[in-house]
Amino acid sequence: MVNTHRKLILNIYCSAIILPQICTCSQFTSSSNDQYNENPGVFPVATNGEPFPWRELRLPTKVIPLHYDLFVHPNLTSLDFVASEKIEVLVRDTTQFIILHSHGLEIMNATLQSEEDLRYKKSGEKLTVLSYPAHQQIALLVPEKLMADLRYSVAIDFQAKLADGFEGFYKSTYRTLGGETRTIAVTDFEPTHARMAFPCFDEPLFKANFSIKIRRESRHIALSNMPKVKTIEREGGLLEDHFETTVKMSTYLVAYIVCDFASVSGTASSGVKVSIYASPDKWSQTHYALEASLKLLDFYENYFNIHYPLPKLDLVAIPDFESGAMENWGLVTYRETSLLFDPKTSSTSDKLWVTKVIAHELAHQWFGNLVTMEWWNDIWLNEGFATYMELISVNVTYPELQFDNIFLNNCFDVIKSDSLNSSRPVSKQAETPTQIQEMFDAISYKKGACLLNMLKDFLSEEKFKKGIIHYLKKFSYRNAKNDDLWSSLSNSCLESDFTSGGFCYSDSKTTSNTLTFLEENVEVKDIMTTWTRQKGIPLVVVEQEGRLLKLRQERFLNGVFRDDPEWGALQERYLWHIPVTYSTSSSNAIHRHLLTSKTDTLYLPEKTSWVKLNVDSNGYYIVHYEAHGWDQLIAVLNQNHTLLRPKDRIGLIHDAFQLVSAGRLTLDKALDLTHYLQHETSIPALLQGLDYLESFYHTMDRRNISDITENLKYFKPVIDMQSWSDEGSVWDRRLRSSLLKLACYLNYAPCIRKATELFSQWMESSGKLNIPTDVLKIVYSVGAQTTEGWNYLLEQYGLSLSGAEKNKILYALSTSKHQEKLIKLIDLGMEGKVIKTQDLASLLYAIARNPKGQQLAWNFVKENWTHLLERFELSSFPMRIIISGTTFHFSSKDELQEVKLFFESLQTQGSYLEVFQIVLETISKNIKWLEKNLPSLRNWLLISI
Ligand code: BES
Ligand code: ZN
User: Fold this and answer.
1) Which residue from 686, 668, 675, 813 is spatially nearest to 737, judged by alpha carbons?
2) What is the average per-residue pLDDT within 561-590?
3) Residue 878: CB partners within 8 Å, gap ≥ 6?
4) CA pair distance 943, 939, nearest whole angstrom
5) Is 361 a catalytic residue?
């Protein structure tokens, strides 16, 4: 209901929808529609019935904030807070009102003082406050016009309940070892939730300084972005912490926490104090995070050649957290499983995840916090860069993790959705809070990161690094847009850079905004806009004819075949500037060519028996080899696969199966290609093949085709070689987990036997026995198949203090074949006590992966939609995971129809999400794939190798 209302208002009042240029504010150009006094009738109506003087979703830019003095006093017993703030504003153009964001706050009082009032200590003038909840805005009406170029101070007293969900200033609880439940209060603001905690100019462009004061009981501590300057005693035994003033920053990065946590600390090479906080009983799990964050902070300060500008950096594990982590400047918050590492129960994959998340959030301290996107349409500048920097930093700080192989999966993951017509361009307009939240998706994170990686490969690591440092230095404490990045990367200097004394790296060979590539001038912007403004991914079709290499580019479409009627229209007007790379049988060197037209022909210097495009899979494109191309590559793989680089082998497996989905390659041919895997020596390549095999078994299982079980294909010898231990390198250990998981899933007798034995020993030891962490999840999953084992696991779930262990147990519980047990899990998840609400999405996701739970999970979502919306915002991460996770695997026309009807019914209630269309297209694609390939897949699985 609320949403329909909002949509209507938008269409009538917000010209952003109709005339985007009116709502797009560049770095504070004044908007002139202050027509309130002339014609109040055309304005929306405030809650008190009076006209609300502003009709746009985005704030006017006549008044801008400079400094916030914020005082907050949360009461962790009555679960509410009282607060006050003084915002120093600069008036840029005469106006009669100030518009601020405020959502769900009760405003008690608002006053205004001019500079003169302040000087003569004159008390403030009371302001009229109007509220327009549909836009989450309030208007402060001033009796006399505010004058341009003057500063004023706005004081506001307000209060609210601590929020129930995961946004704004919310409460979170945890149980101590002694069984006591304790409450803490914590903030989470990105993208548009600062307005739930204090009235503010809640847009990324309105950067300001913040001085924060928190009142608390003496049993608690308070943390905020900056270090504490002093603590003052207040009446009733309360204490008030005053924090140093922040650097200039956006509202979404403000943070404060009141809790009773314990910490470990260390000092980075630059002197920055780094601390890890967790609830007292989890203190022992904080040490790995401290080691990793110190290493990573040192790395980033060196790499960017820019100091982390705050004196301290806290990383805090929050018991109830919606996403994985949040990069608040100086006070980064994490889900417990993204920060804590328990040597007894955290696996090597858990360690990888913790390292990745810390690397990501610390990268944001530069990309995002120091330099922020102007508006949410370019959120990829934050998230794509943070994801890209994970690769750069972890490869150096933890080389043994071989993070480049993990990074590749980002690209493969996003290709799945980006090759559907329902995908979107990297940069896309987003106005409403729902649209803004939807921008936090695989396209911003993963495609963004893969494009940056491709550009780095094209420009050379050195030039790319120089360019991004230039960008960071030039836009420090300011906002940037795509074009700012492109011109920084062009390695060029503008005259203004010299005159303003800005940082500039000049390359004498280049002219403004151009750089040379193979002796030709190319513009980074020209290349990159073909990747950020067009949705989708290109397919490079290559045909070798003697010494000629013929190239052609198309739009790659998953599930749409070339002879489908819509294929032609879906290709129209798509053209990318593709940095093509290749190596050949006669030269392992990397050859380069920028493909800017539909077709092109290259001359190979020598005769070669094969050619492989997209060296090391660094490019964001798929390659199809026409004529004998694929056969030649399959022959090389079988004769001596080491002639191709490991990432090229991974890329070939990936592209071959993608091409099957696009109807360009037969499934038999792709399966042929995997035949060489029995000799594969690279673990990441083996895992790539194993992933497909696993998904094929799941496909059969979902269809109740059971005669193919226990055929382990090429993997049987290597499965038989596995020990049930934590020995070996990181990738040996990852391989062991994946192989044994598949073996036990397929009921391979030796696997079940060993897992059952370990599970019984564990139960007999009352959960005290240490099982090797990499096989823990497998042992629990086998144990969960008996009622006794399942019940015991559920009991242990309630007692465990390790998030890593709890995740493994919950997954194991969700693999039960008994529906009543799965229903019990969902009930517990909805209740939110034993199974926390934060884990409901991954629980439903896991149950939907279980063939016995797939229908159950989906029915639950349909029947409990409104209850789910009481827990999560429509466009939040969990909601989108729940929607896609419980529907993605469907593959029949009836299921498609059912999902479609359900989405339509939501739409008529005013709820619409981009993910609906992605899901529907994915199901249609699944249907088509199975119609075409199920018989040959089944035959192939039946053959024993
Ligand atoms: N800035 C995001 C947190 C966020 C997510 C804010 C969605 C608003 C909406 C944070 O940096 C982030 O990206 N977190 C990831 C973890 C990361 C390692 C991919 C997450 O929460 O999943
Ligand atoms: Zn991020």
Assistant:
1) 686
2) 94
3) 322, 838, 840, 841, 871, 872
4) 7
5) yes
What are the helix (H) ranges across 620-706? 629-640, 646-661, 667-674, 683-702
Q: Is the pLDDT of residue 453 over 70?
A: yes
Backbone angles phi, psi at 74, to 5 degrees: -85, 145
How far is it, in rounded angstroms, from Cα 391 to Cα 396?
A: 9
**Please, what's the b/e burial string for 303-335 (b: 16 or more CB within 10 A of its CB; e: otherwise)?**
bbebebbbebbbbbbbbbbbbbbbbbbbbbbbb
Mutate to test the pocket of ligand 1, among 188, 293, 323 (most ligand atoms within 8 A of CB): 323
Ligand 1 center–CA 386 separation, angstroms: 10
Q: Would you place residue 717 in the very low, low, confident or very high pLDDT band (cuts 50, 70, 90)?
A: confident
Give the closest residue to 355 by CA, choosing from 415, 317, 307, 403.
403
Q: Is residue 326 over pLDDT 90? A: yes
What angle is formed at CA 529 by the lines to CA 523 and CA 535, rounded to 5 degrees?
155
Widest CA span of the chain, in angstroms?
91
Half-sphere exposure for 605 (CA within 13 Å, toward CB): 9
How far does the centroid of ligand 1 lie from the alpha carbon of residue 326, in Å? 6
Ligand 1 atom closest to the CA of 364, numbered from 1: 11
At 167-192, the pLDDT tens digits run 999 999 999 999 999 999 999 999 99
> DSSP of 836-872, one letter per residue?
-GGGHHHHHHHHHHSTTTHHHHHHHHHHTHHHHHHHS
- 530-546: pLDDT as tens digits: 999 999 999 999 999 99
Using CA atoms, how far apart are residues 296 and 271, in angstroms rounded to an integer?
14
| Average pLDDT over every residue of 829-850 | 97
What φ, ψ does residue 317 adopt, rounded to 5°? -90, 115
Separation between Cα atoms, residue 755 and residue 782, nearest integer Å: 6
Q: Is 520 annotated as a binding residue?
A: no
State the pLDDT confidence band at 804, using cuts at 50, 70 and 90.
very high
CB distance 357 to ligand 1 below 6 Å: yes
Q: Is there a contact between 303 and 340 (Cβ–Cβ < 8 Å)?
A: no
CA of 326 to the centre of ligand 2 (A): 7
Spatial neighbors of 851 by CB under 8 A, at least 6 apart, are 698, 701, 702, 704
Of these residues, 203, 301, 361, 374, which one is catalytic? 361
From 327, 360, 364, mutation site for ligand 1 pocket: most ligand atoms within 8 A of C-beta: 360
- Distance between CA 304 and CA 471 in Å, rounded? 10
Identify the bridge partners of residue 592 per DSSP, sorted by sequence position: 581
Q: Kindly report, residue by residue over 191-223, the tens digit of the pLDDT.
A: 999 999 999 999 999 999 999 999 999 999 999
Nearest to 879 by CA among 202, 167, 10, 251: 167
* DSSP per-residue letters across 810-843: HHHHHT-S-HHHHHHHHHHHHHTSSS-GGGHHHH
859 contacts: CB under 8 Å, gap ≥ 6: none
Q: What share of the chain is helix, strand, coil (3-state, %, to 5)?
A: 45, 20, 35
CA atoms 906, 907, 911, 912: torsion sign: positive
d(CA 225, CA 637) in angstroms, rounded, equals 54
Domains detected in the chain? 43-260 (2.60.40.1730), 385-500+522-531 (1.10.390.10), 536-687 (2.60.40.1910)
What type of residue sits at position 318? I
Please give the number of the atom of ligand 1 that sits closest to the Cα of 357: 18
Contact 125, 143 (CB under 8 A): yes
Residues ≥6 apart with Cβ < 8 Å to 863 = none
Distance CA 24, CA 805 (A): 47
Ligand 1 touching residue 390 (CB < 6 A): no
How distant is the alpha carbon of residue 302 from its chain centre? 25
